[in-house]
Amino acid sequence: MSDRYRRGLDVAEQLANDKLAHFVKSGVAEIAPDFARMVIEFAFGDLYSRESLDLRSREMIAIAALAASGHAGPQLRVHVESASSVGIEKAEVVEILMQVALYSGFPAALNALADCHDLLTDDNCLTRACG
Amino acid sequence: MSDRYRRGLDVAEQLANDKLAHFVKSGVAEIAPDFARMVIEFAFGDLYSRESLDLRSREMIAIAALAASGHAGPQLRVHVESASSVGIEKAEVVEILMQVALYSGFPAALNALADCHDLLTDDNCLTRACG
Amino acid sequence: MSDRYRRGLDVAEQLANDKLAHFVKSGVAEIAPDFARMVIEFAFGDLYSRESLDLRSREMIAIAALAASGHAGPQLRVHVESASSVGIEKAEVVEILMQVALYSGFPAALNALADCHDLLTDDNCLTRACG
Amino acid sequence: MSDRYRRGLDVAEQLANDKLAHFVKSGVAEIAPDFARMVIEFAFGDLYSRESLDLRSREMIAIAALAASGHAGPQLRVHVESASSVGIEKAEVVEILMQVALYSGFPAALNALADCHDLLTDDNCLTRACG
Amino acid sequence: MSDRYRRGLDVAEQLANDKLAHFVKSGVAEIAPDFARMVIEFAFGDLYSRESLDLRSREMIAIAALAASGHAGPQLRVHVESASSVGIEKAEVVEILMQVALYSGFPAALNALADCHDLLTDDNCLTRACG
Amino acid sequence: MSDRYRRGLDVAEQLANDKLAHFVKSGVAEIAPDFARMVIEFAFGDLYSRESLDLRSREMIAIAALAASGHAGPQLRVHVESASSVGIEKAEVVEILMQVALYSGFPAALNALADCHDLLTDDNCLTRACG
C-alpha cells in the first residue's frame, strides 16, 4: 500500500463515508482495480489531503462542481453523504444546489436536488442518526 | 428601483467588485437592459443575499461551479476578483481550481488557471493593493 | 403571494401542464420550498410572461435548449407535455429534436427522443385526450 | 453536385447569409473539404429543407440550442446573422438568449449576448440595411 | 434503399452489432423513422465508411468521445458491444475509459465504467461467446 | 524527482512535444507549480505509461475526447502537435475531428478544426519538417 493510498484512506475516514469505503472494493474496482486505486491515491491522497483548504471547503466545492456538471448524480450523492461529517448542514447543501442554478441552469439544480432528495428530506439526518 | 435590485447592489458592494458595478451599465446592459437588471435582482438580490451561506462560501461555490462548466471564463474572472473581498486568498483560489480537475477534467482546470493567470500571479495582490 | 408568482401561475395555466402544477407542491418544494417558488417567479413570472415572444416560440426554444444540454430529460418531458397547449404538434417536436442533433450530436437527440417516447408515439395524443 | 448539396445551397440562399456562403470555400473547406460539403448536404440539404418546420422556427431553434451549448460562439453568430432573413427581429434574438439562461445558466446567456453584441446593438440593423 | 443506407448497413454488419440492427426498427424508428434512416446513412454510410481510418480506430474514437460527453450511456454501450468485432479487447476499453478521466473528469469515467459494467466483467466475453 | 514524474517525462519525450516541455515551466507552473507537476505525474506518469494501449491509440483518444468536450482548444492543439510523433497523419486527425461531429455536434467539430487550422493545412507538416 503506497503512502498516497494510505493518505487517501485517511481522508476517506474523516469523511466517514461508507459509500467511499464500499467503492474501494466494488463495481468499478472489479473491472478496473487500478483505476479504483488511482482515485483514492490521486483524488484523496494527492489533492484532498493538501492543507490549503479544509475538508469543509473541499466538500462544498465538490458539491458545487458536481452539480454544475449535470451528469454526476452518483458522485454528488457520495459527497452529499459526506457533507455532515465535515460540518455542512442539509440547509447549506440545499443552498449550494440552488446557487448552482445561476451558473448551470435550473435543470442541473433541480436534478441535483432530486438525485439527493432522500438525503435531504429529514432535517436532522445528516447531523445525527436517523431512526 | 426594486427592493430586490437594491439588495442585489448591496451584495455587489460587499464584493467590492468594479467589474460587477461596470456590468450594470455596460455591454450586456446596452442590448439587454432588462436582463442586466434581472441578473442583479435574481442572482444577487434573491440568491446571494440569503443568509444560509456566508459570502465567502458563496464565492468558493461560484468559482468551483464556473470553472467546472468549462465555458465561463469571463464570469470566473469576475468572481476571482471578488474573492479577496470576502477573505479568500489567492492560494485558495488556485486550490479550488486544482480540485475542479477531479470533477471536470484537467483542461477545465488548466483553462481556468490560464483565464485568471494575471489575477493569481502576485501572491499579495488579492489581499492588499498591488503597486 | 407576490405579483411575480401570480404572473408565473398564469403562464403555467396557459401551458395547461399538470406536471408544472404538481411541481409547485412536490419533491423539490419539500426540500427547497423557496427554490420552487423562485422557479415559478423567475422562470415563468419574469421571463416567460414577457411579450417579446409568444408562448409557442418559448416552448420551441425550451425544447431545443433542454435537448441540447443532454442532461435535462425530466425538464424536457415537462415542456414536451406543454407543447400541444400552445399549438406545437408532435411531428414538430420530433423535428426540433432531430435538428438538435446538428448542434449537440446524435446521442443528445436520440436520448431526447427516447426520454419522450411515450409522449410522442400516438399522433393525436398531444392535441386531444388519449383513450 | 449532388441533389442534397443543391438543396442545401437553396436553403443557404434563403438565409441570405454571406458567412454561410463564405464557409463553403474557406477555412474548414481548405483542410476538410469533404466535411464542408457534408455540412451543406446534411445540415441544410437533409434537415433544414424538411417541411415540418418553417425556416423562422428552425433559426430560433438553432439560436437556442447553440447558445445553450456554451461553446458555439462562431456558429451562433452565423445564425444570428441569418435571423433577419427569416423574419426574426433583434429584440426576439435577445429574448431567446435571455430565456436560455433558465436552461444553461447565466454565463451561457451572457456570453452569447457578448458574442453577438455588434450584431444586436442597432435596433434596426437586422430588419433593414444599416447605413 | 439509398446507396448511402446500404453502405451504412454494410458497416453495421462488420460491427456485428445486434443493438445497431435492432435500432433500425425500434423505439426511435417508431416516432422518427426518417431520423433512424439518417443515422444509418450519415453516421455509418457517409462517415464510418470512409477509408482514412479503420473501424478499430473509429470504435476507439467513438468510445472516447461518448464517454467524454458524460450523457451518452446508451450509445456508449452500443459501441462497447461492437468493440470486440473490430479487435478491441475489454482491457483496452477499460483503459480508454480510464484515460477519459483526464479530459472530462472522474465522474464521466466512473459512470462510463458503471454503464458498461456487465459488458466488461467477464474477461473473455468480448472476444468469444459467453456461456 | 519522483519515479512517477520521471516516467511522465519519458512519455512526454516520446511525444516529442515542445509545447508539453514548455508547459512544465510556464504559465500554469508559475501560479500552480504543484499542479503542473501532478499533470506530468498523473496524466503521463500514471496513465499514459501503462502498457494496455500504445501511444498512437492514446493520442487518438486524447484528440477525440478533447474535441468532444467543446472547451479544450489549447489542450487539443498540444495533442494534435504530438500526433505525428506517434505515427498519426494529418488526414487521420481531420478524420477523427469529423467523426466527433456525430457525438458532440457540428460546432464542436468545426471549432476543433478551426483551433488546429494552421497545424493541419500543409499535408506534410506533421510527418516531416516544414520549411
From TrEMBL, chains A, B, C, D, E, F:
Q: Name one Pfam family in it.
A: CMD
State the species of origin. Sphingomonas hankyongi
- Protein name as catalogued: Carboxymuconolactone decarboxylase family protein
- Domain (Carboxymuconolactone decarboxylase-like): give its ranges: 33-114
- Biological classification of the source: Bacteria, Pseudomonadati, Pseudomonadota, Alphaproteobacteria, Sphingomonadales
Name the domain of life this protein comes from: Bacteria
Q: Which InterPro entries match?
A: 4CMD/NDH-1_regulator, AhpD-like, CMD-like
